[in-house]
Amino acid sequence: MTEAKHKQHLFGLVFGHMATQVVATAVRLGVADAIGDDGRHGADLAAGIGTDPETTNQLCRALAALGVLSETKAGWFRLTETGALLRTDRPDSLAPFARVFADPAIQATWRELDSVVRTGQGSFGALFGKSFFEHVAADPQLSTHFPAALRQSAAQTAEALPAHYDFAPYGTVADLGGGDGTVLAAILAATPRLRGILIDAPPALAAAPATLAAAGVADRCAVIPGDITAEVPPGADLYLIRNVLHHAPDERAVAVLSAIRAAVSRGGRLLIVDPALPDTVDGSLPDTMYLSDLHMRMIGGGRGRTQAAFEDLCARGGFTVTGFRLLPAPMAFSLIEAVPDPGE
């Protein structure tokens, strides 16, 4: 790489926060929905969404430079395949994801990164006097967008997991913190004789009956409200915990694992779906995983963990890790399989 390219790379990193705001503004204004399938002239787009024509054209050209739009002729814009993911009328829309990460509270939290690095303490609670999840619950827009973003993540797992793990040997799988049941429904649909138990806090389970019914598996799945840090019901020979531990500091993560250990039978297994970071930044994971690692620390004290750290964490919770397997992109999460420690 030449010196000029190194400089351009650094410029791109420094300007990154501007790119975030360009995309976030486009989502808030509904640009992708307004452009639609046929493309639209910038002036016509501005009239449709109630914005200033000249500045709207600048916004669209910035989006085109970022690969979200293409400018097919002067002032005429179309969605790229990337930009089409911001339409709200498609089931795999990433518009809620963009809204969450560009939320003013999240942006304010990231401005405190230097303090977090100095102290090791998350900044969200100190800034706002409540946890991130309490903030989400109190914000009408975020309380809509955040669950939608989680559902999109769950949909990616639901598509990948049944093809990359053999659930056939098990009789009952319990999905801990499984939300609306998207992942468990996919597992049960792919494994006809398997039964399921879905456990989460009551608000998270509100849509679960409809999700399970739509997949045709409601008759094979019990839905149980509960706090997985306090008690996990017995009765499953495989316990699944997805996208939970990296949100939690070690103490809470060990509490969750210990609750599972108290429920699981000696011959049972635990399957964790979470980021497992390599010992060095070797290019095997996208850079977003390392940004997410910092993000977890800042909003609540969670963090990404290496394989060795997962082995230690599981040992503290009463499990022995037996294997790691990386799920395919774009997830970049790992399947971490563990068995109860016979010494516990």
UniProtKB/TrEMBL annotation:
Keywords noted in UniProt: Methyltransferase, S-adenosyl-L-methionine, Transferase
MF terms (GO), sorted A to Z: methyltransferase activity
Pfam families (alphabetical): Dimerisation, Methyltransf_2
Domain O-methyltransferase dimerisation residue range list: 13-86
Coiled coil location: none
Listed InterPro entries: COMT-like, COMT_C, COMT_dimerisation, SAM-dependent_MTases_sf, WH-like_DNA-bd_sf, WH_DNA-bd_sf
Lineage top rank: taxon: Bacteria
Domain (O-methyltransferase C-terminal): residue spans on this chain: 110-319
Protein name: Methyltransferase
Source organism of this protein record: Actinokineospora guangxiensis
Lineage, broadest ranks: Bacteria, Bacillati, Actinomycetota, Actinomycetes, Pseudonocardiales
